[in-house]
Design a protein that fits this description.
Strand content: 5-15%
Largest sheet: 7 strands, mixed
Bound molecules: iron/sulfur cluster
Distance between the termini: 19 Å
Number of helices: 32
Shape: globular
Radius of gyration: 25 Å
Number of strands: 21
Oligomer: single chain
Number of domains: 3
CATH class of the largest domain: Alpha Beta
CATH topology of the largest domain: Rossmann fold
């Protein structure tokens, strides 16, 4: 850290603009943020930042900040106090709830939250009694999550940014990192310098394409045809990784009829790519393995986005590239915490950590929250509503404008809150404006007056609440490569702004459920403590592995990044000790454990039964006509719900963590029982699996009767019948020899 003086202190913060997660030092002189420097010791940005990151300070302290709460009355904006704002908003919300039910409020959250604010926001919606909660990920990478999770298990980037420099080839489809994620290009160009051919597929010749060895100009929307063309070419020439496919991949034979028709000539007809180029790219990928496949929203924002991301994942399986250093599917997210906000449940179809919405999920989180399941149930009007997905972000306008019954939505949306969800909200033009003009209550919570607040023609009952930026609060943030980093508060909230934590607390208090909601979280002077929220996250997120990232550990890691030698790392191929200071999830274990995080998902150097994982290539969707010329003929995502419950994600990976054979067998059985396609790989009959799952569920229910949440989690991880976590006393990290211990 740069040396502090009596007047000048330095605070380490994380850039708030994109998902690369660059860290920087903020210089604070007598409480005023006067300058910033990129952190040289950061393994991610290594002393660099881009033009957006360089504007961090200016955005936070800029003139356009919203300075105090405001209200629109008779078409005029007037300044009001926080007390008045909270009291009027909560009164109106309670009236609306009384008349129309809890689902008549829609809570639109943000990928700009800290992890703790995201988690608190989802918890708030649960205590209010609705699943009408969502954020930007719905319209950017939700198709990636569907496609990738359905193939591998987790809907996330498989490797790290740094790892790209070890790739033997780099294929970028539908992404322009040179402009959208500039610092990630550092790693891409390192990879190129190390000899990896860089292939860029894009309809536009972008700045990224300008660095490529091979630029593939593609007809917009026809990516699927090109990907299948590559897969076909690879099989045609016998370049597929047969051993890998036989050992790890289930259902690959179902792909062959899909790809059969995508000859180089057909690819040319549909995608506009010359046959020689398709052949050349396939050969380059086959001859340079393991290679990475990077994509961004050019591949996701299509009506067949889930299918495209599945096809891309399958291409990597065919090449044997997943679960290997330098390989993987590396998906660059948008906002700085789009990964964390999704992980921690700012979505309409799940509670935090992808537990889903079924009764077991509510019981799990009820235990973590120290509250009764029946209390939570009472906040919804019925069990059915409690377990039903809320409206996605893409449909909230329909929830306002259309007959609720036609939408399978029980209540009309009468109150809209945009909390940290800025410009992107107004993307459907007149429809959207019209919808917002008709709600009974419109609240915008943001550091800046947003498009929503400015464009609405609504004359009354519009509120603008000034939120602090992420630089004005402590908290953690998860970058695109799953690395969780601690972000120090740089300055106190400016003007009359309040942190997301405080606003959530004040609203919960005025709405009458703060006592119940904050039973397990420390609150000081109306401000929930970020560290305390993170500890609660640690207690509940076993499915995804945020359990080992305590606030203390995260802070230590940020402090000790200076052990990382960024100069010697540049250009080197070998792993460098200390590279993974950012604790990518899954990081299992009790918060005080030393599990180093998982920079490489599905590590193929480990056997299947120890978390190396099998993959699913099975193709249940009809993709005929992948030209996008007849969009209606596409059936997207119908396979996603087919036998793929959330439990699989964490449990299958947890196989490698169970200490004793019994536990391992149990976890294996849960995994295969929950996801029948894996039975074949484990040579277990469906009946056997079902019996074991029934036994295990009965045992979990028994344990859940009188133990606290940690006991239950202990029993999940160890298979202990009594729910004792005694056998969990050894830190899990010490049983995991493959990565350097930090
Ligand atoms: Fe910020 Fe992204 Fe630029 Fe890094 S690359 S400085 S995280 S905008």
């Amino acid at each position: 850290a740069p040396p502090d003086t009596p007047d000048m202190v330095h605070r380490k913060t994380i850039c708030q603009f994109c998902s690369v997660g660059c860290s920087m030092w903020a210089e604070v002189e007598n409480g005023v943020w006067v300058g910033q420097e990129p952190a040289f010791e950061s393994p991610i940005n290594q002393g660099t930042h881009c033009a957006k990151g360089a504007a961090m300070r200016e955005i936070a302290i800029g003139e356009r900040r919203l300075k105090y709460p405001m209200k629109k009355e008779g078409g005029e904006w007037v300044r009001i106090s926080w007390d008045q704002a909270i009291s009027e908003i909560s009164e109106k919300l309670l009236d609306i709830r009384e008349t129309y039910g809890p689902d008549s409020a829609y809570w639109l959250g943000s990928a700009k939250y800290s992890n703790e604010a995201a988690y608190l926001f989802r918890k708030f919606a649960a205590f209010w009694g609705t699943n009408n909660v969502d954020h930007q990920a719905r319209i950017c990478h939700s198709t990636t999550v569907a496609g990738v999770a359905n193939t591998f298990g987790y809907g996330a980037m498989t490797n790290t940014f740094n790892d790209i420099r070890r790739s033997k080839s780099i294929l970028i489809i539908g992404g322009n990192p040179a402009e959208a994620h500039p610092v990630s290009m550092l790693h891409v160009l390192n990879g190129k310098e190390n000899g990896a051919p860089l292939i860029v597929v894009d309809p536009r010749f972008t700045r990224t394409a300008a660095h490529s060895d091979e630029y593939v100009r593609i007809r917009p929307g026809s990516d699927m045809g090109f990907i299948w063309g590559l897969v076909r070419e690879i099989f045609e020439n016998g370049w597929e990784d047969r051993e890998y496919l036989a050992q790890r991949v289930f259902g690959i034979e179902e792909i062959l009829p899909e790809v059969e028709k995508w000859t180089p000539e057909e690819v040319e007809r549909v995608c506009g790519i010359a046959p020689d180029q398709t052949r050349r790219v396939a050969r380059t990928l086959a001859e340079n393995r393991p290679g990475t496949l990077v994509w961004c929203m050019g591949l996701t924002q299509h009506t067949i986005g889930s299918s495209m991301t599945r096809a891309a994942s399958i291409l990597q399986l065919v090449l044997g590239n997943v679960g290997k250093v330098g390989g993987g599917t590396n998906i660059f997210r948008g906002h700085d915490n789009v990964q964390g906000a999704t992980d921690l449940g700012v979505v309409c179809d799940s509670l935090p950590a992808y537990y889903g919405l079924e009764e077991g999920a509510w019981r799990h989180w009820g235990r973590v929250w120290g509250t009764d399941y029946d209390y939570l149930l009472s906040r919804f009007t019925s069990k059915e509503l409690m377990e039903r997905s809320g409206m996605p972000l893409s449909r909230y306008m329909d929830g306002i404008l259309e007959d609720p019954e036609s939408l399978d939505q029980p209540h009309p949306v009468k109150a809209m809150t945009f909390w940290g969800h800025a410009a992107n909200s107004i993307t459907r033009g007149p429809d959207q404006i019209r919808a917002l003009d008709t709600v009974d209550l419109l609240c915008v919570v943001d550091p800046h007056p947003t498009q929503v607040a400015i464009m609405t023609q609504k004359q009354d009952n519009v509120y603008l609440l000034p939120a602090g930026t992420t630089a004005e609060m402590h908290g953690s943030v998860t970058n695109s490569s799953r690395s969780v980093q601690w972000r120090d508060k740089v300055i106190e909230p400016l003007f009359e702004a309040k942190t997301d934590y405080e606003i959530t607390y004040l609203l919960a208090k005025a709405l009458g459920f703060a006592d119940e909601m904050f039973k397990t979280i420390e609150v000081v002077d109306n401000v929930p403590v970020a560290e305390s929220i993170l500890r609660e996250i640690n207690r509940g997120t076993w499915t995804i592995g945020y359990t080992g990232q305590s606030p203390e550990r995260l802070k230590r890691h940020m402090e000790h990044q200076d052990k990382f030698d960024s100069i010697t790392l540049r250009g080197q191929i070998a792993p460098v000790e200390g590279e993974y200071y950012c604790l990518p999830w899954p990081s299992w274990g009790r918060p005080e454990d030393s599990h180093p995080g998982t920079p490489l998902l599905y590590d193929q150097s480990r056997p299947v039964a120890e978390g190396g994982l099998p993959f699913r290539a099975r193709w249940g969707v009809e993709h005929e006509g992948a030209t996008l010329l007849a969009e209606d003929s596409y059936t997207v995502g119908s396979e996603i719900k087919d036998g793929y419950p959330e439990i699989t994600l964490g449990m299958i990976h947890a196989l490698g963590w169970a200490e004793d054979l019994t536990a391992r067998e149990r976890l294996m059985i849960i995994a295969v029982g929950a996801d029948r396609f894996r039975l074949e790989l484990f040579d277990i009959s469906e009946e056997e699996a079902q019996r074991a799952v029934d036994d295990l569920e009965a045992s979990l229910l028994r344990n859940s009767g009188d133990g606290d949440s940690e006991d239950i989690e202990g029993s999940w991880m160890t298979g202990g019948e009594s729910g004792s976590n005694e056998s969990n006393s050894e830190p899990l990290g010490q049983r995991f020899p493959d990565y350097p211990e930090n």
